[in-house]
Amino acid sequence: MSERRGLLIILSSPSGAGKSTLARKLRDWDASLQFSISATTRKPRVGETDAKDYYFVSEDDFRKYVNEGEMLEHARVFNNYYGSPKGPVQKAIDNGRDVLFDVDWQGAQQISNSSLKQHVLSIFILPPSIRELRRRLETRGQDDQDTIALRMEKSWDEISHWDGYDYVLVNDDLVDTEARLKAIITAERLRLSQQPKLVDHVRALQAEFEETK
Amino acid sequence: MSERRGLLIILSSPSGAGKSTLARKLRDWDASLQFSISATTRKPRVGETDAKDYYFVSEDDFRKYVNEGEMLEHARVFNNYYGSPKGPVQKAIDNGRDVLFDVDWQGAQQISNSSLKQHVLSIFILPPSIRELRRRLETRGQDDQDTIALRMEKSWDEISHWDGYDYVLVNDDLVDTEARLKAIITAERLRLSQQPKLVDHVRALQAEFEETK
To answer: Which part of the chain is the Guanylate kinase-like domain (chains A, B) (predicted)?
Structure first.
């Protein structure tokens, strides 16, 4: 067993609140952080690699994983299923590596109620204003007004579930928010439940105490 | 109501593990941190000031406070009672100030089960070794060998309750431990339960969203 147990770090936010940028900054800070790879029943697109972009699985296999409790969360999007397989996450945290999840509030809720809930750390990033959120969506320049209106509806749905998370940050300054995220992760790694090896240290203290008294 | 709610920060450790030094460092870091002042039924000594060193109270009053749930924790030591009154702590946290408690594991347990438990952050400091703990007690030079043996017994009793805390740190390097403590406090201030004003921010976002859609 590793010195410390890894965390399941859930980062949720409406799109445009800075989540992807922050996730990259965390990865730059600690290269051992890994992103959770989703399983999906949709077909791979050109250039996508199995076990890197997604785990591509059949619908039968996907259902079997869900029934066996091997999915930490899952959802159906149009005609395809998406989910977070437990196996690789369990392996990572046993090896002391944290796993980052980019999921919406429904995924966050499912992971927070999963069999690994003891090791979950969930963080919600709020935008400073709706105007700022819309501005960021518009400056991406990818979408027409109808699509942006739809995205804004989706963003509001996401924001309205802000209070189901352990920590909530308002991203009004990227540098501040990054520092806060790092403090949260640094702290959570020091929780009793994340340090399975501490019991050995205390046993050594006890032995030493018995010897010398 | 203050922007954020204060925390009840419990710092426990055997004596000699560096707790007092660390408490001072935290106070230097954030002058708004206040130390909890105990109530006691013992008589004031020369130079002690009421409401600064202790709240000096009668035994009748002390019992009344306990019965009315106005003590977050209390204990009898020889013929005197000691305890942490809730009133000043409640006032501090409502004003967004954190309160630091220097209590043993029994006090920590009582505070962690008190009516303010939602805002409690408990940290245990372990020594790197028993040898180091003994060395620190001996270099204080205040005590004879029998007293040191007694203190070591008391220290072991304290260490044996290490696993009842939220966070556990091994103080093998004072600079590291100080940085970790600061990260824990910085993080815990960002918990949903510590940010009562965030609901106003989300209401403002909602109003803005409704207006602009």
So the answer is: 6-186
Q: How far apart are the C-alpha atoms of A21 and A2, rounded to whole Å? A: 29
Using the CB atoms, write b or e for A69-84: b if 16+ within 10 Å.
Answer: ebbbbbeeeeeebbbb
Whether the CB of B208 is below 8 Å from some CB of chain A: the reply is yes
For residue A142, pLDDT beyond 80:
no
Q: What is the ipTM of this complex?
A: 0.92
Structure tokens at A65: 């994983």
For residue range B18-41, list pLDDT tens digits in order.
899 999 999 999 999 999 999 999
Query: Average pLDDT, whole number, for chain A?
Result: 94
pTM above 0.80, yes or no: yes
Window 112-171 of A: residues touching B by CB (8 A cutoff) are 126-127, 129-131, 134, 149, 152-153, 156, 159-160, 162-163, 165-170
Domain ranges of chain B: 8-36+98-212
Q: How many CB atoms lie within 10 A of CB A31?
A: 7
For B157, name the nearest residue in chain A, comparing CA atoms only: A206
Q: Which of A131, A168, A184 sits opposite B195 (nearest CB)?
A: A168
CATH node for A8-36+98-212:
3.40.50.300
Overall residue count recorded for chain A in this entry: 213
The 8-class DSSP code of residue B161 comes to: T
Q: Where are the alpha helices (DSSP H) in B76-119?
A: 86-94, 105-112
The strand pairing partners of A168, in sequence order, are A124
Whether the per-residue pLDDT at A1 is higher than 60: the answer is no
